[in-house]
Design goal:
Layout: H1 2-14, E1 18-19, E2 31-32, E3 42-48, E4 51-58, E5 64-69, E6 72-77, E7 80-89, E8 94-95, E9 98-102, H2 129-142, E10 147-151, H3 158-175, E11 181-184, H4 190-199, E12 203-205, H5 213-219, H6 225-239, E13 244-250, H7 256-268, E14 271-277, H8 285-292, H9 300-316, H10 327-331
This protein binds iron/sulfur cluster (SF4) (2 copies).
One iron/sulfur cluster binds near residues 116 and 154.
Length: about 350
């Protein structure tokens, strides 16, 4: 049964939108994300068993369809029964039980898979520190909020973007002394890391993006691969073993052996690796095909086997995702997260 649900979550992660029945009113506010795979689209969270996924929703078409039955919700896939006992879950901001803000979706870099800087300018919500603190306060008064997470594009310079994170983290820490705060900045120096930790961040994610340097240089031509490895090492010194994570996007032409080698290196440094299946969409397809060409269609089998490998290697190095309470690891909506989904 559990293996069956894992297989279904993998299919949902890779699959198309969920079509809603005509006239169906979602019981919760629909999330309009400015980061992550659903950036720019309306999406909602569907939960089943121990799992949850965030899917783009549509009234027009979709690979999956929400069915409203007498005893609750279920999903069909291409018209065939797919998943029973589905629950709809609210998001706090962007993520269920988590207030996850994109401080600024604009970015001076041009990573080929990233849709955030391609969003229409009016998606930039102009979030101030005061506004974020007040949104979190209000959310906590009506629903469970386990943590706050912050991401951002790089705007102006790396220094000024780090300043922005430091100021927002300080404001949040002042108001919420015990709340886990996770950050996903692009940093360049040890001082950046120390300032973010001193401001009150508890978890940090510095993304390596690919286990293969050549692929990295094609998809993130302006970012510094060796610099990220070095900063990951420093981040573990400052934030602690198991409190630093790094994302690997797979499906860009790398091999499973390269991913395994990269995971071992990250885990031996005390970094928790995270894994994200590459998704092509109408906004990033052209840039991605220019950078890495067409890629083989991803299979649920690969998603599952890589997640199992990720868990096995983390166990060997005494790491877990259960001590992390922010960002994608806590959310689990777009990946099979070791120790949480499997
Ligand atoms: S650094 Fe790259 S991945 Fe991050 S927001 Fe900018 S373009 Fe996107
Ligand atoms: S897993 Fe990450 S990208 Fe996906 S919805 Fe959750 S926080 Fe957003």
């Amino acid at each position: 049964m559990e293996e069956d649900l894992i297989q279904k979550k993998a299919l949902l992660i890779l699959g198309g939108p969920v079509r809603l029945p005509k006239g169906f009113e979602f019981p919760y506010r629909v999330s309009h994300s400015t980061a992550g795979p659903g950036a720019g689209y309306g999406s909602a969270v569907f939960a089943f068993g121990y799992h949850r996924v965030k899917k783009t929703i549509s009234y027009d078409d979709g690979e999956f369809e929400l069915v409203v039955g007498e005893n609750g919700y279920s999903l069909t896939r291409n018209g065939e029964p797919f998943l029973e006992n589905v629950e709809l879950r609210p998001v706090v901001f962007h993520s269920p039980e988590q207030a996850f803000f994109n401080l600024d979706p604009r970015c001076m870099y041009h990573c080929a898979y990233c849709t955030s800087p391609l969003l229409p300018k009016d998606e930039f919500k102009g979030l101030t520190d005061e506004r974020i603190v007040s949104l979190v306060k209000d959310a906590r008064s009506v629903q469970k909020v386990v943590s706050v997470s912050l991401t951002s594009g790089v705007v102006g310079s790396v220094d000024s973007t780090v300043d922005r994170f430091v100021s927002c983290v300080s404001a949040l820490r002042k108001e919420f002394p015990d709340m886990p705060i996770g950050i996903e900045p692009y940093v360049a120096t040890e001082e950046h890391l120390r300032r973010l930790k001193d401001a009150g961040a508890t978890e940090i994610k510095l993304n390596l993006e690919s286990p293969d340097r050549e692929i990295f240089e094609k998809v993130c031509p302006e970012l510094d691969y060796d610099g990220i490895w070095h900063l990951l090492q420093l981040a573990v010194k400052i934030f602690g073993k198991g409190m630093v994570s790094s994302n690997i996007i797979f499906g860009m032409g790398e091999t499973d052996e390269e991913i395994e080698k990269c995971f071992r290196k990250l885990c031996s440094m005390g970094v928790v690796p995270t894994l994200r299946a590459l998704r092509f969409n109408s906004m990033n397809r052209e840039n991605l095909e220019k950078a890495i060409g067409e890629q083989e269609k991803m299979t649920p089998e690969r998603v599952i086997s890589l997640a199992k490998m990720q868990k096995r290697i983390m166990e060997e190095y005494g790491l877990t995702t259960l001590n992390l309470h922010t960002m994608c690891i806590e959310c689990t909506c777009c990946d099979l997260v070791p120790f949480r989904d499997l």
